[in-house]
Amino acid sequence: MIPTLDYAEAGFVCGLEVHQQLLTRTKLFCRCPAGLYTETHDGTVLRHMRPTLSELGEYDGTALMEFKTKKNIVYLLNVKNVCTYEMDDTPPFLVNQEAIDVAIEQCLMLGCDIVDEVQIARKQYLDGSIPTGFQRTAVVGVNGRIPFRGRTLSVTQVTVEEDSCREVRDRGHCIVWRADRLGMPLIETVTGPDLRTPDEVEEAILLIGRVCRSTGHVRTGLGASRQDVNVSVRGGRRVEIKGVPKAGWAPALVHGEAWRQVNLLKLRDELHRRGFADPGSIRVDSQDVTQLFAATEIPVLTAEGWGRWVEAERMRPGFELGKGPFRIRAARLAGLAGTLSWPTQPEHVFAHELAGRVRVIAGLDQPPVLLHSEAWPDTRGARSELKRLRGRLRCGPDDAVVVVWGPEEDTVTACEEIRLRYVDAVQGVPNETRQPFADGSTDFERILPGPDRMYPDTDSPPTRVARERVARLAGPLPERPWDREARYAAAGVPASTAHWLIRRGGAAVVDRLAAATGASVRDVAFLFGERLKGLRRKGVPVDAVPEPRWEELLHAFAARPVLKQAWEPLVRAVAAEPGSPVAGHLAARGLGEEPAAWRTGLAEALASAREKAYRKDDPALVARLALARLMPGLLGRVAADEVAAAVSAALAESTRREEVRA
Amino acid sequence: MNEMTDPLKGYKGKARAALTRFGVKVWSDVRVVNDAGSVFEGVILPRSESLDDLHVVLKLKNGYNVGLHVDRLEHVTEVGYKEARYKIPEKEFPARPSLPNVTLLGTGGTIASRLDYRTGAVIPAFTPGELYGAVPELADICNLTTKKIFGVFSENMAKENYLVLAKAIGEEIAAGADGIVIGHGTDTMGHTAAILSFMVQESPVPIVLVGSQRSSDRPSSDAALNLIHSVRTAAYADVAEVVICMFGPTSDRYGLLHRGTRCRKMHSSYRSTFRTIGDVPLAIVGRDSFQYLTDDYRRRDKVRVPLVDPVYDDRTTILYYYPGMKPDLVDALVEKGYRGIVIAGTGLGHVNKPLYPALERAVAAGVHVVMAVQTLWGFAQMYVYDTGRDLMELGIVPLDNMLPETALMKLSWVLGHTDDHAEVMRLMTTPISHEITPREPHNGYLVMQGGLPETDEWVRGHWK
User: Which of A150, A178, A155, A148 is nearest to A165 (CA)?
Assistant: First the structure.
């Protein structure tokens, strides 16, 4: 059950970072093709990351955390889409000006002020997602605003940046990345913290998506747009839910995070009540208890169980596995009994928060990552083992116990990380980046980085953006989606169709064709937004049809409205041979021409209909069957109304005759 | 204006005037409003002097930098002042008597560095404390002493630097160092390694040159690992020679020890840029071990007395031959007073015929002319073709498989001792530190050709 929350009362605040790949031929800082994905590799590189100082002389907290994880970082390379730049073995080439143009265009769509000199910065990422250890990124626009639910959604800034690698596998101390996506240009649109409910979050993601797509200069498809959602409640802190793949995921994720923060604040109050007010008051003492579990039947705590898991998961020593032999380590959490089962996200407890940190930072990832005294296993003898364990740790009734297992060094790191997570809990909500799941839950990904991870890219000169360049790009700017939506609504196009057309880039074509052929926007929108969408789903290659064909088709519809009835066979024919003019298809099928003697078939159609009708005395049924028999041959040649009228007349005539005969 | 104290560092012309007008300076924490009403809050950064005078650089609160056109500034209000003190946290390097003593001599380069705002350049940072703060692993290896001898980019290394460096090495050895590491820019590291091989002979301890291909201000830098490898080599390796210690593959795996006279930078930016040419490297430097790849090296022996012989005549050059080279080039060198010419000849050591008279004039003028090969791999074998024989008759001496840069360094060193032609050529053709080897092993030449199925197969199965 999803608990409810009064968002206004909780002080819910949310802002977005919407990432959208740009449609350019090459990547942002090298000449590799953009958008060419591969699932195989022909080279691998092994690297590690080490934190460095920011421009203002500080180490970034995230950077230090990532360094603690001691990750082996593996890159999978393919010569088709990766050069020595992506490997960080060649300095950047000059920034792709095509990408800067597209980014400026996007900024203008979002109502931004364009910065005068675009300066490339390095934003540190030590998770390995970028082999340099930083993302090259630059602010292009600031101070934007878009209309949203009768108010304004502010756009703090828009940056152009290089996309990161795709994660292939992350186990223990080894993370594997595929480098094909790396370096593709994207823009990140950062909104102000203006969103007040989870539903607004979804709506805002979709709106920004439509703004981006209105230009036709962005990529579409899986992974082409992703968003980070920043959430906080009053008294909480900003938490970033990273890489939300679909807008539809957002409401549940955002709700769950708000709920989590409210609960963590309650936990903070409880900790304060128990006298844990400062970080030093948290005491976590741990020791090696491997021997104590020598005869255990808890599967994850047996050396054999560990060995089997290591083999089955192909955890290699020195790569996925940390240093030292298999050990079990137990930590006494003094005075913290009851906090491990403290609720956090819906259906999650505080022990999950600990497990997240241990998994990521200590690299211990055998489920369930840790065992604890508030959800102890019930295998044979487990109760007494816990009792002995509590004795060994000299636990009082107010103390809680956590057990971790794995390579020795990692178990020590894990216990320290548990202490640090409690230190954070004393202060409330830690700044974190969290990974989203489809079920609406999230898990710890890393500490949220701060501004200390930014420093200038000494390899790249700044790009001056003259006002003339901005004016040149502003001139042909496409209609903004809210203007188009209003116009479409006035023309009678349903909002869902309008949104779909804008998202899929069809709106511009609809407008061009309506203008060129005199057809109504409503009709053309219906053709593209509903009919062609249906045919595409059935596998008809409608996207291969060039725009002039559609223009001819719409002209033909206008000249001979009867053709509209035959839209489907006609579109199928055009899609099968997109090179031939529509007139040829019409002539070949005799469409648009009324057959000379079609009325002579009326009698035969009626006779056949009477034969088939199970209620022969129902004239409406008979008429319908007769029409069904006649129409296929007359589709697009005689209007259905006319055929129906002829059938009715013929039926009335024959009935009258029979009555006369009777 | 003293650029160190200039409160408007790097700003000139219109931008300087604007900052002055608004009464703000570099490191001012400001609130800027431009003509579009956009508000920017952040710190004014120094500007690179090579950039235009139209923009003010602001570091925003979120860490991004933007350039604001001075004509668009409406209001600039100073709300504070925040000068960056960019410093690696310095921690005292722990002393442990049981560990070997290593001296790190700094010449510049990017082995440990910080950013310079004014130019955007990377400046070295070097004390043991700074190094310990950045690479704490070093303290487990040795006791470290650092001396900054000069701070130059490696392309600026020249005669005076070589002499000073060789003397400093001699002094450190005399003072009892168990090994010496030299931090050096990578561009001319090969040249320095070669000249030191001649200037410091019979060393009792390892002399290790190290640098980095990715500056140490980046998380992916090879600097830390190179430093760890080189310090371990200096402290423990059994190779008492001048060596270069740099990445083997581009992956973070191991370092290679390359002999100073046989090593060359082979890629402008790859991490694994240094390769031993015409032979195999001396050793692999792993995480906890050395794997020696040959038996043929001088062992560590602390009682051996080094021969420090720092002399250098820089009236020498490399003439990189190309088809159609005009003889006046050679004449010009002679006229300008050059005393030694290393020809990097084509193939087995050739130049075109029109050059002969000029070369003859040069030799007659007492200029010492030697031949190396621009193919880098292989020997100058001037008996094979008439051209070679003709050149030798002119008095040009082939240097077998000595690398052109090594030949230049050696010739400069030799000319520091003598101008006697016979003696010069005797010294040039007598190997001191494997600059000429009697034989080339077949695995001394392996430039694998990508695209070939067997090569790609091998690459697929190995860390690059």
Answer: A178
